[in-house]
Amino acid sequence: MANKDERASDARVIAAARAIIDADYVIGLTGAGMSVESGIPPFRGPGGLWTKYGEPPMNGYQIFLADPKKAWEDRIRRQNDELWGPLRVAQPNPGHRALAELEAMGVLRFLITQNVDDLHRQAGQSALAEIHGNWKLIRCIECGARFRAEDIRLETLPPPCPKCAGLLKSDTVAFGEPIPPDVLAQCVDHAARADLAIVAGTSATVYPAAGFALEVKQRGGILIEANLYESEITRVCDVSLRGPTGEVLPRLVAAVGDLRRARLS
Ligand SMILES: [Zn+2]
């Protein structure tokens, strides 16, 4: 744990808020740290799901394509696994709500998340790309349509796409599976316009997500991180806000609100 002295000072929060106010186009990039604060275990590391259950196969997508019927049978059989339990009960935390508020204020234009837990949506985020998919959704790998899992009939496996009869798969992106092109295009588009990126709950080392933040920096933009620990991203960040995102992001958004009001008056 970061000790108390390392927690983001008010001065640093205000410095970050000022940069956000001065920016033209702010995007966000979030990762597993935000989910962990909502009680969802990480995949890797101590207590991680993969540490416990083993890493999924690196060619998971190819395995799915080779035998989609079996993949669906496995999915149905594993629905009551511990893997799914925390996702079912997790609620958005103050960090998720702070980012949704920043969007509602017209400040945060777009959010890219690596999380599949649906919590940004539940917090009210609407300009959102779930780059690794959403665990509650099913996606047609042919036409790209998404459906709520409970709306898909499972009489025949694999179930056909209600729109095009194509092959349906969990929306969560498997190893070996390309990022869905519609999601990737949105990320590329917004990242190209951004002059400031807020990186929260991620060390931003997993590509392609990390690339969107680094691209903003390489173009001369500003990077702000809200992370519990120092990581690879820290050395390229202009302002590092140390602490849980559920604590740091609400402070940051409150400071943005205060500065805006002060400038308007
Ligand atoms: Zn389809």
Secondary-structure blueprint:
Elements: H1 10-22, E1 26-30, H2 32-36, H3 49-53, H4 60-66, H5 68-77, H6 85-89, H7 94-104, E2 108-113, H8 119-123, E3 128-130, E4 137-140, E5 146-148, E6 168-170, H9 181-193, E7 196-200, H10 209-218, E8 222-227, E9 239-242, H11 245-264
Helix pairs in contact: 1-11, 4-5, 7-11, 9-10
This protein binds zinc ion.
Zinc ion is lined by residues 140, 142-143, 145, 161, 163-164, 166.
Number of strands: 9
Content of β-strand: 5-15%
The radius of gyration computed from the alpha-carbon positions, rounded to a whole number of angstroms, is 19 Å
**Count of alpha and pi helical runs:** 11
Distance between the termini: 40 Å
Mean pLDDT: 92
Bound molecules: zinc ion
Low-pLDDT stretches? none
Instruction: Give helix % range.
Output: 25-40%
Question: What's the story with the biggest beta sheet?
Answer: 6 strands, parallel
Form type: elongated
Question: SSE string, helix = H, strand = E?
Answer: HEHHHHHHEHEEEEHEHEEH
Order of strands side by side in the largest beta sheet? 3-2-1-7-8-9
> What structural category do the secondary elements indicate?
alpha/beta
Q: Give the oligomeric state of the chains in this entry, treating copies of one chain as homo and distinct chains as hetero.
A: single chain
